[in-house]
Design brief:
The protein is an alpha+beta fold. It has 17 helices and 13 strands. Strands 1-2-9-6 form a four-stranded mixed beta sheet, sandwiched between helices. A three-stranded antiparallel beta sheet has the order 3-13-10. A two-stranded antiparallel sheet has the order 4-5.
Length: 492
């Protein structure tokens, strides 16, 4: 009885401290009423498929700046307000990520995604040259070789009335990113049940679970996820370490900087470029290398898989749009249905790019991003205090009729003259100083893969009709799969 009373007093004290700290925001910002101990987290515990719907409901009920409690000392301000979004993303000071990214620490350390301050600036400066167009074009060969295997797998699905395309796309993009980042393949398309593949999926699920747990992070080591995470990380980090060891010990006779044509003599992985890089004249440590390799692997795998999957779905369910894509492909490749793309071909895929942009508007791979304020921010008649977590609701912004007429309709042509129009209303790759460094790589991969699929197959809606159950689990996905039907395309 005494112990229970002490525990109760401690809980009340923590809650009092939390809500006192938050009172400045609570006084001015509207939001759902928090429940003692649990805040608003109970709204998100039933299913991740309710998450986006609930956030949209909050915006419709309380406005474009909403206070949300996630129990104890965690709360955030949900933002769809254009001007505040622009101010946060364009700032050269508000660059720190919010607590939403804490769950990545054990996996990614403090690499480019999660690092802050001077470390982030030095890493960004060091890595940026690796994404120069001249270097990126070499990866087209990787996109094509993995794409051929992807097409072979899809051939086995031809004629079926309903196929969940996402697992196959995910394996394809995992093979691509492994070869591009580490210069090695896990042969995911051929061995989808590999331990490495399962470990990646496990970590992505755990990260989202941890964000919305009602318990304090100090209790995490007592949960089943803690032990699942340890097992998964052992596999992931062991694989990365082995690849790094192999690269370091290979002692290639020709350095990356000696190669005049990155698309010529030999294939260069991002890891090769990292091994050549220095910060203040010093090479990266093994821990530094693993952080960045693991970060590239995470950011370049599921995000691209999400985008390709939803693009295939929108093409299947919009036959008029699909036909325009086919016509453009025929204009570029003529009768050569099986042609390999070049960098010039990719630049000429103007309409396919519109399709990709509209797909990422409706289905942004990263539907929310978080920042932490490093100073008080005065906004109208409120003050958002230093340290406050800000969550920019990309999914909500992209589907707002304020910026996109008929927002739920798939209209690629809306992006024909979109440049210069309210740029912070379309942010699938974030924006400002901390935008996605790999967006050009992603767009090249998307175009190459989609071009190959659309030239080989006619995409149709599944039978019976498939209704997506969208859920953000680190990236946007559909919990009941993404089902379409595939037929061989006649190329005339």
């Amino acid at each position: 009885m005494y112990i229970a009373l002490v525990c109760a007093v401690i809980v009340v004290f923590l809650l009092t401290c939390h809500f006192k700290k938050d009172s400045q925001i609570a006084t001015y910002l509207p939001g759902p009423k928090p429940v003692l101990l649990f805040g608003n987290v109970l709204d998100f515990l039933t299913s991740t498929t309710k998450f986006l719907t609930k956030l949209v409901e909050y915006v419709e009920t309380y406005g474009e700046i909403v206070r949300i409690h996630l129990s104890f000392s965690r709360d955030f301000v949900l933002v769809t307000d254009y001007k505040l979004t622009e101010r946060v993303l364009s700032s050269t000071k508000m660059l720190d990520k919010s607590f939403l990214y804490d769950s990545f620490d054990n996996w990614l350390g403090t690499g480019l995604l999660t690092s802050t301050g001077a470390k982030w600036r030095s890493r960004r400066k060091m890595i940026t040259p690796s994404f120069h167009f001249t270097i990126l074009t070499q990866f087209i060969k990787t996109f094509e070789s993995v794409g051929d295997n992807f097409i072979a797998k899809l051939e086995k699905l031809v004629g079926k009335p309903s196929v969940d395309i996402y697992p196959w796309v995910s394996l394809c993009t995992l093979d691509i990113i492994c070869e591009a980042v580490m210069g090695t393949s896990v042969n995911a398309l051929d061995h989808g049940d590999s331990e490495y593949v399962h470990s990646v999926k496990t970590m992505c699920a755990i990260v989202m679970d941890r964000v919305f747990t009602p318990f304090h992070k100090s209790l995490y080591p007592l949960t089943p996820n803690y032990f699942r995470e340890k097992k998964a990380l052992k596999v992931l980090h062991s694989h990365t370490d082995k690849v790094i060891d192999k690269k370091i010990n290979s002692k290639s006779a020709e350095s990356v900087s000696d190669s005049e044509d990155f698309g010529g003599k030999r294939k260069v992985a991002f890891l090769d470029l990292l091994l050549e890089s220095t910060i203040d004249g010093k090479p990266l440590t093994r821990a530094d290398l693993r952080e960045e390799v693991d970060t590239f692997m995470f950011e370049g795998h599921d995000t691209t898989a999400s985008a390709i999957t939803f693009a295939l779905y929108t093409l299947a369910t919009n036959p008029d749009v699909q036909q325009k894509v086919v016509e453009e492909q025929k204009t570029i490749f003529g009768s050569n249905q099986k042609a390999y793309v070049t960098a010039s071909d990719l630049q000429n895929m103007k309409y396919l790019e519109l399709v990709i942009k509209e797909t990422l508007r409706l289905y942004p791979s990263v539907p929310i991003i978080g920042r932490k304020l490093n100073e008080d921010v005065k906004w109208d008649d409120i003050t958002l205090p230093k340290g406050q977590a800000i969550t920019l609701f990309i999914f909500g912004i992209h589907r707002s009729p304020k910026y996109f007429p008929d927002p739920l309709k798939f209209i690629p042509e809306r992006f024909e003259n979109y440049e210069g129009k309210e740029p912070f209303s379309y942010i699938p790759f974030s924006a400002g100083p901390r935008n996605c460094i790999g967006q050009k790589f992603a767009m090249m991969e998307l175009k190459t893969t989609l071009s190959k699929v659309i030239r080989n197959f006619e995409l149709r809606p599944s039978t019976p009709e498939h209704v997506l159950l969208l859920a953000p689990e680190t990236i946007l996905l559909s919990k009941n799969g993404v089902r379409i039907s595939i037929n061989r395309r006649k190329w005339e």
